[in-house]
Amino acid sequence: xxxxxxxxxxxxxxxIARVFAADLKLLPEAELTxxxxxxxxxxxxxxxxxxxxxxxxxYAELAACPDVDAIYIATPHPFHKENTVMCLNxxxxxxxxxxxxxxxxxxxxxxxxxKSNGVFLTEAMWVRFTPLxxxxxxxxxxGLIGYVRLIQSDFGFHSKRxxxxxxxxxxxxGGSLLDVGxxxxxxxxxxxxxxxxxxxxxxxxxxTGVDEQAAMIFSYNGGKMAVLSSAITLWTQRETLIFxxxxxxxxxxxxxxxxxxCVHVNDEDTIETFPRLGRGYGYQALEVMNCLRxxxxxxxxxxxxxxxxxIKTLDTIRSQWxxxxxxx
Length: 328
Prior knowledge:
This protein has nine helices and 14 strands. By secondary structure, the chain is α/β, with parallel strands linked by helices. The strands form two sheets. The chain has an eight-stranded mixed beta sheet, with helices on one face. Strands 3-2-1-4-5-6 form a six-stranded parallel beta sheet, sandwiched between helices. The mean pLDDT is 96.
């Protein structure tokens, strides 16, 4: 595999799958070989758009395809576990869209399947893999802004889709926390390297039964804090600020256009702009392919142990709200 292109399959044909497919086509190391959908017509349409030779009218056919090395799971949240385990049992490496699973029980089952099969698995928290985020963590680790004590991060947008769309449907794992709240929560974990000791949270439910707006305060050992929020019915700045004893780092939003960072140290601002390949989704694919060539079964950038702990944090927040999804 080290001298050959990694052959990719995409499971599902929705909007996020289209973004990933477009970015994957920019990578010379990758070959987009196959796509699977619940309907053959949908697979054919997607395959025609992205020039994919193999197209299947079921996910099981894609998982069984011998001409695929790695599969990107792009189905709605409640189907991640089922689809991922199926692909892992078929011996395929898996990059599973975030949130990784609906709850910690599902996440553990997915991780267990990967380990029992000796197959690669990671969560597609794409922003982590970008040069910008890797540089920010290096600055924090090197102590550029001193001891970090506060993170402020938000992701809110006003969905123009109707109430029948995925983000408003409880049966499809809708709501702000799982859909976009995962970004600032994962950011806090990325910077602090651990989960909070205590969590305070508040939310507003919409008439479809999902959380349309959420706010959280995380407290950690050593006096560290994170103030986070998410929304699907209002616009927020969609930015991140990391405050330390010597200065701060300002990651300009929105999340899907991350390229510019301001580093404020010694009362001086330094603006850095980072290159971005396509929409930025290709960097996670590069990490998957590097891991496969090095015969690693997980990524150090998004370790499975951290993915599981983040899901447990999401579970804790939802337990404070007494909020369960119909699939649980």
